[in-house]
Design a protein that fits this description.
The structure is a single chain. This protein is mainly alpha-helical.
């Protein structure tokens, strides 16, 4: 390299600095606008962080209330089950109270004592009056849904509430609970699958099979929810049969059996196909 060329390159500005300078000159007229946009972006990020913090705080509070409501529900249902089992055991004991015991065995309890225990156990069973048996439990779950509608805890509370309604044949109330537009589902996640499977069943119970099919179709559209696909496909087939769309019902029964042969749904589908064939022969 010649001495003159070297001195010329030394006098030339670095390419990066030169381009940077040109960019600065180009944006200088818009510096105020750029500053405002930068402030807005920073403000938006700060708001997002605050909102996320608030939402997380709400979720924690909602989960705490949900755990309390769930414990109350589990205790209530456990008490019912234990009472039913105790009654069966006591009634068996009562039926054998007349029979003579081994002379070496301790004396049997009196019938009066056994009957008293049976009466006490029966007092712990559901009365059949929804307001008396379940109002407290339902209110606990309702409060979570109303106070924290956009939380995952609200969805879990809705599932329990819908189950309570289902057990007491209040299917319309169950539909209203799970179709609440305030619930914020995460598409394709477990709670989405559980809620939509249950909602489809409730629609079916209220005679709205077309809505059931549409609801289960949402579950079937997510690969992540493949666990529910056998039952969703089978249930859709049953609803098509109810709607007298026998060709579609048969198609889905065959699909369920072919795709999920080793599942309970696959076995049921094969049985329903046989029944359809027998009905067709008889008609």
């Amino acid at each position: 390299m010649s001495k003159g060329r070297a001195s010329k390159e030394a006098r030339e500005p670095d390419a990066f600095l030169r381009i940077s300078g040109e960019l600065i000159k180009a944006v200088k007229p818009y510096s105020k606008q750029i500053f405002v946009v930068s402030i807005l972006v920073a403000l938006g990020a700060a708001i997002a962080i605050v909102l996320n913090f608030v939402q997380e705080k709400k979720e924690v509070e909602a989960q705490a209330e949900y755990v309390h409501a769930e414990k109350a529900y589990v205790k209530k249902t456990t008490d019912f089950t234990e009472a039913q089992n105790k009654i069966k055991t006591l009634e068996t004991e009562l039926s054998g109270a007349k029979k003579p015991k081994d002379k070496k065995a301790p004396p049997a309890r009196s019938r009066a004592d056994i009957e008293k225990e049976i009466a006490e156990a029966k007092a712990k069973l559901p009365t059949g009056d929804f307001e008396k048996d379940y109002t407290g439990l339902a209110t606990g779950f309702k409060n979570i849904i109303q106070k924290y509608p956009h939380t995952q805890a609200a969805i879990m509370a809705s599932l329990y509430l819908a189950q309570i309604y289902t057990e007491n044949k209040k299917f319309t109330d169950g539909v209203a609970t799970l179709s609440n537009s305030e619930l914020k589902f995460r598409d394709g996640k477990l709670l989405y699958g559980l809620a939509h499977m249950k909602l489809g069943q409730l629609y079916e119970q209220t005679g709205q099979c077309q809505k059931s099919i549409e609801t289960w179709a949402k579950v079937l559209s997510y690969k992540e929810l493949s666990y529910f696909h056998p039952e969703a496909t089978l249930a859709s087939a049953v609803c098509y049969e109810t709607l007298k769309n026998l060709d579609k019902a048969q198609e889905l029964y065959k699909k369920t059996h072919a795709d999920f042969k080793n599942s309970p749904a696959g076995a049921s589908a094969q049985k329903y196909l046989r029944l359809m064939s027998l009905k067709a022969k008889d008609s």
